[in-house]
Amino acid sequence: MTKMINKDKTILIFSISLFFLMIVNIILFIRVIKLENQINEIFTPPEEIGLEIGKKVPDFKLLDINEKEVSLKDLNDKKLLLIFTTVGCSPCIELYDDIKEFENKHKDINIAIIVNGPLEYIKKILEDYNFSSLVLNDKERLTLKSYKVNSFPFANLIDENNILINKGTVNNIDDLEELLNIAK
Predict the structure, then answer these.
(1) pLDDT digits (tens, 9 = 90+) for 157-182
(2) Are residues 98 and 21 located together in one domain of the fold?
(3) Residues 95, 14 share a domain
(4) Do both 28 and 96 map to the same domain?
């Protein structure tokens, strides 16, 4: 009888162990898929990131921190620099000081920082950096998708006719200046 009970316990322990191994495998599989997607984003050729230069950009409607709707039409009275950032992006956070310096230097263009993240995070960015630039929330990622942005931080320079004049990954003020200077 005790042999039978020990055999049942062994089978039960084996079954539980097998179940946990399956769970671990599933978690590892999901993590591998996520890593594969991240690697694909990193190694996407730069010319495939973003919209085509010389083409009209799509309109967008996003909310600012006061939940007021802002569209591309509201910003096209002069050149517009759209800077795309996202929550948890270290290079994006490092760029915020440079954006502040850049916006103080370039009053001749509109700057909008489009952040993918919760409203509280966006409000904290404004509190910490006191931007004069518009900070918009793309929590649904619709603008990121329509502008084909999958690398951060990324910027688009758009003229008054909503034509993309330059684009690129921007990690510092030099990158922002280069983006502007190449378009001149």
Answers:
(1) 999 999 999 999 999 999 999 999 87
(2) no
(3) no
(4) no
| pLDDT level of residue 156 (50, 70, 90 thresholds) | very high
**Which domain range does residue 170 map to?**
50-182
Nearest CA to 112 out of 50, 68, 160, 155 is that of: 155
The count of structural domains within the chain is: 2
Q: Are residues 68 and 146 in the same domain?
A: yes
Q: What is the pLDDT of residues 39-74, one digit of tens each?
A: 666 665 555 789 999 999 999 999 998 889 999 999
Over 65-92, what HEC string results? Answer: CCCCEEEHHHHCCCCEEEEEEECCCHHH
Task: Count CB neighbours of 162 within 10 A.
Answer: 16
Task: State how far the Cα of 69 lies from the Cα of 29, in Å rounded to an integer.
Answer: 40
- Comparing CA positions, the residue from 172, 160, 179 lying closest to residue 90 is 172
